[in-house]
Protein backbone atom coordinates (compact mmCIF):
# COMPACT_ATOMS: atom_id res chain seq x y z
CA UNK A 1 0.00 0.00 0.00
CA UNK A 2 2.83 2.47 0.87
CA UNK A 3 4.54 1.71 -2.45
CA UNK A 4 1.26 2.37 -4.26
CA UNK A 5 0.79 5.66 -2.39
CA UNK A 6 4.26 6.86 -3.35
CA UNK A 7 3.50 6.20 -7.00
CA UNK A 8 0.42 8.41 -7.06
CA UNK A 9 0.74 11.85 -8.73
CA UNK A 10 -0.76 13.53 -5.64
CA UNK A 11 1.94 12.03 -3.44
CA UNK A 12 4.68 13.20 -5.82
CA UNK A 13 3.27 16.69 -5.86
CA UNK A 14 2.99 16.73 -2.06
CA UNK A 15 6.60 15.64 -1.63
CA UNK A 16 7.76 18.23 -4.16
CA UNK A 17 5.80 20.95 -2.37
CA UNK A 18 7.31 19.94 0.96
CA UNK A 19 10.79 20.08 -0.52
CA UNK A 20 10.09 23.54 -1.93
CA UNK A 21 8.81 24.81 1.41
CA UNK A 22 11.79 23.35 3.26
CA UNK A 23 14.15 24.96 0.75
CA UNK A 24 12.42 28.35 1.11
CA UNK A 25 12.58 28.08 4.89
CA UNK A 26 16.27 27.26 4.72
CA UNK A 27 16.86 30.40 2.65
CA UNK A 28 15.21 32.60 5.35
CA UNK A 29 17.12 31.97 8.59
CA UNK A 30 16.03 33.68 11.81
CA UNK A 31 17.09 37.29 12.13
CA UNK A 32 20.47 37.92 13.71
CA UNK A 33 19.66 40.34 16.54
CA UNK A 34 23.34 41.21 16.88
CA UNK A 35 23.23 42.64 13.35
CA UNK A 36 19.97 44.43 14.11
CA UNK A 37 21.58 46.09 17.13
CA UNK A 38 24.59 47.07 15.04
CA UNK A 39 22.23 49.09 12.82
CA UNK A 40 20.98 51.23 15.73
CA UNK A 41 21.86 54.89 15.23
CA UNK A 42 19.66 56.36 17.96
CA UNK A 43 17.93 54.76 20.93
CA UNK A 44 15.87 56.42 23.66
CA UNK A 45 14.56 53.71 26.04
CA UNK A 46 13.21 56.37 28.46
CA UNK A 47 14.65 54.50 31.45
CA UNK A 48 15.17 57.04 34.22
CA UNK A 49 15.56 59.87 31.70
CA UNK A 50 14.17 61.09 28.40
CA UNK A 51 17.69 61.51 27.00
CA UNK A 52 18.88 58.93 24.48
CA UNK A 53 21.25 56.15 25.47
CA UNK A 54 22.63 55.79 21.93
CA UNK A 55 23.05 58.85 19.73
CA UNK A 56 25.36 60.66 17.33
CA UNK A 57 24.37 64.24 18.23
CA UNK A 58 24.32 64.28 22.02
CA UNK A 59 20.95 62.61 22.51
CA UNK A 60 19.57 65.41 24.68
CA UNK A 61 15.82 65.83 24.83
CA UNK A 62 14.47 69.36 24.40
CA UNK A 63 11.12 71.09 24.75
CA UNK A 64 9.79 73.74 22.34
CA UNK A 65 6.93 76.17 22.80
CA UNK A 66 5.25 74.95 19.59
CA UNK A 67 6.01 72.85 16.52
CA UNK A 68 7.63 75.96 15.01
CA UNK A 69 10.30 75.68 17.76
CA UNK A 70 10.88 79.42 18.11
CA UNK A 71 11.60 79.05 21.82
CA UNK A 72 13.51 75.99 23.05
CA UNK A 73 14.53 74.86 26.54
CA UNK A 74 16.74 71.89 27.44
CA UNK A 75 15.11 68.88 29.07
CA UNK A 76 11.65 67.37 29.34
CA UNK A 77 9.34 70.18 30.43
CA UNK A 78 6.26 69.93 28.21
CA UNK A 79 2.98 70.09 30.12
CA UNK A 80 1.82 66.57 30.97
CA UNK A 81 5.03 64.85 29.80
CA UNK A 82 7.02 62.73 32.27
CA UNK A 83 8.93 59.49 32.79
CA UNK A 84 6.61 56.80 34.17
CA UNK A 85 8.65 54.55 36.44
CA UNK A 86 8.26 50.83 35.79
CA UNK A 87 5.38 51.39 33.35
CA UNK A 88 7.23 50.78 30.11
CA UNK A 89 7.35 47.88 27.71
CA UNK A 90 10.81 47.42 29.21
CA UNK A 91 11.58 49.44 32.35
CA UNK A 92 10.26 53.01 32.31
CA UNK A 93 8.47 54.88 29.51
CA UNK A 94 7.63 58.37 28.28
CA UNK A 95 4.09 59.35 29.29
CA UNK A 96 1.86 62.13 27.95
CA UNK A 97 -1.22 62.87 30.04
CA UNK A 98 -2.61 65.97 28.35
CA UNK A 99 -2.77 67.67 24.98
CA UNK A 100 -0.24 70.48 24.76
CA UNK A 101 1.08 72.95 22.20
CA UNK A 102 4.55 72.28 23.60
CA UNK A 103 6.66 69.76 21.72
CA UNK A 104 9.23 67.24 22.98
CA UNK A 105 12.00 66.71 20.44
CA UNK A 106 15.53 65.60 19.61
CA UNK A 107 17.94 67.29 17.21
CA UNK A 108 17.48 66.56 13.52
CA UNK A 109 21.14 65.54 13.22
CA UNK A 110 20.25 62.31 15.03
CA UNK A 111 18.79 61.17 11.71
CA UNK A 112 21.32 59.86 9.18
CA UNK A 113 20.14 61.92 6.22
CA UNK A 114 21.72 61.20 2.84
CA UNK A 115 21.12 63.11 -0.41
CA UNK A 116 21.63 59.82 -2.28
CA UNK A 117 20.10 56.37 -1.74
CA UNK A 118 18.82 57.00 1.79
CA UNK A 119 17.41 54.08 3.78
CA UNK A 120 16.53 53.47 7.40
CA UNK A 121 13.93 52.36 9.95
CA UNK A 122 12.10 53.94 12.89
CA UNK A 123 10.67 51.85 15.73
CA UNK A 124 8.68 52.51 18.91
CA UNK A 125 6.12 50.99 21.26
CA UNK A 126 2.85 52.80 22.00
CA UNK A 127 0.06 52.24 24.52
CA UNK A 128 -3.28 54.04 24.34
CA UNK A 129 -6.89 53.68 23.29
CA UNK A 130 -7.07 56.28 20.50
CA UNK A 131 -10.83 56.74 20.35
CA UNK A 132 -11.09 57.13 24.14
CA UNK A 133 -7.85 58.85 25.13
CA UNK A 134 -7.16 61.41 22.40
CA UNK A 135 -8.85 64.79 22.27
CA UNK A 136 -10.48 66.03 19.04
CA UNK A 137 -8.11 66.76 16.16
CA UNK A 138 -5.09 65.15 14.56
CA UNK A 139 -2.38 63.55 16.69
CA UNK A 140 1.23 62.82 15.63
CA UNK A 141 3.07 60.50 18.04
CA UNK A 142 6.14 61.03 15.83
CA UNK A 143 6.99 63.64 13.20
CA UNK A 144 10.45 64.07 11.64
CA UNK A 145 11.14 67.03 9.35
CA UNK A 146 13.21 70.17 8.82
CA UNK A 147 10.28 72.10 7.32
CA UNK A 148 6.65 71.06 7.84
CA UNK A 149 4.44 67.99 8.08
CA UNK A 150 3.85 67.97 4.31
CA UNK A 151 7.34 68.97 3.15
CA UNK A 152 10.23 66.46 3.43
CA UNK A 153 8.63 64.71 6.38
CA UNK A 154 7.98 61.36 8.00
CA UNK A 155 5.17 60.97 10.49
CA UNK A 156 2.79 58.49 12.02
CA UNK A 157 -0.53 59.93 13.10
CA UNK A 158 -4.10 59.28 14.13
CA UNK A 159 -6.78 60.80 11.94
CA UNK A 160 -9.25 63.19 13.55
CA UNK A 161 -12.39 61.22 12.71
CA UNK A 162 -13.87 58.43 14.84
CA UNK A 163 -13.06 55.60 14.69
CA UNK A 164 -9.52 56.89 14.28
CA UNK A 165 -7.35 55.56 11.46
CA UNK A 166 -3.61 55.17 12.02
CA UNK A 167 -1.40 56.40 9.20
CA UNK A 168 2.18 56.54 7.99
CA UNK A 169 2.96 59.67 6.00
CA UNK A 170 6.11 59.99 3.88
CA UNK A 171 6.01 63.35 2.12
CA UNK A 172 8.67 64.29 -0.42
CA UNK A 173 9.73 67.88 -0.90
CA UNK A 174 6.51 69.84 -1.33
CA UNK A 175 7.50 71.00 -4.82
CA UNK A 176 8.15 67.38 -5.83
CA UNK A 177 4.92 65.72 -4.71
CA UNK A 178 2.64 68.76 -5.07
CA UNK A 179 4.17 71.01 -7.77
CA UNK A 180 0.84 72.76 -8.47
CA UNK A 181 0.24 73.45 -4.76
CA UNK A 182 -3.15 71.78 -4.81
CA UNK A 183 -4.97 72.15 -1.49
CA UNK A 184 -4.90 69.10 0.78
CA UNK A 185 -8.67 68.73 0.82
CA UNK A 186 -8.71 68.54 -2.98
CA UNK A 187 -6.18 65.69 -3.13
CA UNK A 188 -7.87 62.30 -3.75
CA UNK A 189 -7.48 60.21 -0.61
CA UNK A 190 -6.04 57.27 -2.54
CA UNK A 191 -3.35 59.51 -4.07
CA UNK A 192 -2.02 60.87 -0.79
CA UNK A 193 1.48 59.63 0.18
CA UNK A 194 0.20 57.69 3.17
CA UNK A 195 -0.39 54.14 4.38
CA UNK A 196 -3.71 54.00 6.23
CA UNK A 197 -4.72 51.34 8.76
CA UNK A 198 -8.41 51.05 9.56
CA UNK A 199 -9.21 50.04 13.15
CA UNK A 200 -5.58 49.62 14.28
CA UNK A 201 -4.86 47.31 17.23
CA UNK A 202 -3.96 49.94 19.84
CA UNK A 203 -5.18 49.32 23.39
CA UNK A 204 -4.87 51.04 26.73
CA UNK A 205 -3.96 47.78 28.47
CA UNK A 206 -1.36 46.47 25.98
CA UNK A 207 1.68 47.72 24.07
CA UNK A 208 1.56 47.96 20.27
CA UNK A 209 4.76 47.90 18.23
CA UNK A 210 5.06 50.46 15.43
CA UNK A 211 7.89 50.30 12.91
CA UNK A 212 8.36 51.80 9.49
CA UNK A 213 11.16 51.33 7.00
CA UNK A 214 12.22 53.51 4.09
CA UNK A 215 14.60 52.64 1.28
CA UNK A 216 15.88 54.26 -1.87
CA UNK A 217 14.88 57.82 -1.00
CA UNK A 218 16.78 60.15 -3.35
CA UNK A 219 17.65 57.14 -5.50
CA UNK A 220 20.60 57.89 -7.76
CA UNK A 221 19.40 55.49 -10.47
CA UNK A 222 15.76 56.65 -10.55
CA UNK A 223 14.53 53.35 -9.14
CA UNK A 224 11.29 53.56 -7.13
CA UNK A 225 11.61 54.36 -3.45
CA UNK A 226 9.61 52.43 -0.86
CA UNK A 227 8.29 53.06 2.64
CA UNK A 228 6.58 50.27 4.60
CA UNK A 229 4.54 50.31 7.81
CA UNK A 230 4.45 47.40 10.27
CA UNK A 231 2.26 46.96 13.35
CA UNK A 232 3.10 44.17 15.80
CA UNK A 233 5.52 42.71 13.27
CA UNK A 234 2.97 42.52 10.44
CA UNK A 235 3.15 44.53 7.24
CA UNK A 236 0.24 46.96 6.85
CA UNK A 237 1.12 48.46 3.48
CA UNK A 238 3.76 50.26 1.43
CA UNK A 239 4.27 53.45 -0.53
CA UNK A 240 6.12 53.00 -3.82
CA UNK A 241 7.40 55.67 -6.16
CA UNK A 242 10.07 58.35 -6.35
CA UNK A 243 10.56 59.95 -2.92
CA UNK A 244 12.76 63.04 -2.79
CA UNK A 245 13.94 64.70 0.43
CA UNK A 246 16.15 67.80 0.61
CA UNK A 247 17.11 68.37 4.20
CA UNK A 248 19.27 70.64 6.27
CA UNK A 249 19.58 68.28 9.27
CA UNK A 250 20.59 70.98 11.75
CA UNK A 251 17.27 72.71 11.05
CA UNK A 252 15.31 69.53 11.54
CA UNK A 253 13.68 67.92 14.55
CA UNK A 254 12.53 64.50 15.69
CA UNK A 255 9.31 65.49 17.44
CA UNK A 256 7.44 63.19 19.82
CA UNK A 257 3.94 63.28 21.26
CA UNK A 258 2.32 66.05 19.21
CA UNK A 259 -1.18 66.32 20.76
CA UNK A 260 -0.64 62.76 21.99
CA UNK A 261 -2.12 61.29 25.17
CA UNK A 262 -0.65 57.89 25.99
CA UNK A 263 2.63 56.08 26.60
CA UNK A 264 5.63 55.74 24.29
CA UNK A 265 8.68 53.53 24.78
CA UNK A 266 11.89 52.29 23.15
CA UNK A 267 12.14 54.91 20.41
CA UNK A 268 14.82 53.71 17.98
CA UNK A 269 16.26 54.81 14.65
CA UNK A 270 18.19 52.31 12.48
CA UNK A 271 20.62 53.29 9.75
CA UNK A 272 19.15 50.84 7.23
CA UNK A 273 15.82 49.34 6.26
CA UNK A 274 15.22 46.28 8.40
CA UNK A 275 14.18 43.12 6.61
CA UNK A 276 10.73 41.66 7.41
CA UNK A 277 12.21 38.89 9.57
CA UNK A 278 14.19 41.50 11.48
CA UNK A 279 11.06 43.55 12.09
CA UNK A 280 9.43 40.42 13.49
CA UNK A 281 12.45 39.74 15.70
CA UNK A 282 12.34 43.27 17.16
CA UNK A 283 8.64 42.84 17.90
CA UNK A 284 9.08 39.40 19.46
CA UNK A 285 12.15 40.29 21.55
CA UNK A 286 11.59 39.71 25.27
CA UNK A 287 14.55 41.82 26.36
CA UNK A 288 14.30 44.88 24.12
CA UNK A 289 17.19 46.34 22.17
Walk me through this protein's architecture:
By secondary structure, this protein is an alpha+beta fold. The protein has one domain: Jelly Rolls (Sandwich), CATH 2.60.120.200. Helices cover 16% and strands 35% of the residues. The protein contains 6 helices and 16 strands. The strands form 2 sheets. Strands 1, 4, 5, 7, 12, 13, 14 and 16 form an 8-stranded antiparallel β-sheet that branches. Strands 3-2-6-15-8-9-10-11 form an 8-stranded antiparallel β-sheet. Mean pLDDT is 90; it is low at 1-26.
What is the structure about, briefly put?
The protein is α+β, with helices and mostly antiparallel strands and 289 residues long. It has helices at residues 2-7, 9-26, 33-38, 130-133, 174-177, 276-284, and strands at 40-44, 62-64, 72-74, 81-84, 93-96, 103-107, 118-127, 139-148, 151-158, 166-171, 194-197, 208-217, 225-231, 234-241, 253-258, 262-270. The chain is 16% helix and 35% strand.
| CATH C-level name | Mainly Beta
Mean pLDDT value: 90
Number of helices: 6
CATH topology: Jelly Rolls
User: Can you give the helix content as a percent range?
Assistant: 10-25%
Low-confidence stretches: 1-26
Distance between the termini: 54 Å
Based on the structure given, which CATH architecture is correct?
Sandwich
Order of helices and strands: HHHEEEEEEEHEEEHEEEEEEH
Number of structurally distinct domains: 1
Radius of gyration, in angstroms, nearest whole number: 21 Å
Which structural category fits the helices and strands?
alpha+beta
How many distinct beta strands?
A: 16
- What spatial form do the alpha-carbon principal axes imply? globular
For the sheet with most strands, the description reads: 8 strands, antiparallel
Strand-residue proportion: 35-45%
Amino acid sequence: MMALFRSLPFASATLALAATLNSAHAESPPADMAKVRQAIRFHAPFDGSADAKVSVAGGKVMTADTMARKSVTPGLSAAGASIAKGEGKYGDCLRFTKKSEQVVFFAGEEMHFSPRDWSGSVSMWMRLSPDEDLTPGYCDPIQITDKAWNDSAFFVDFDKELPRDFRLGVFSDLKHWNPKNISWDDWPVDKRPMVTVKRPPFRRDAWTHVLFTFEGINASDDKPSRATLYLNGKKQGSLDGAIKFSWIPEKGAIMLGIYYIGDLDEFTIFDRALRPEEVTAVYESTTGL
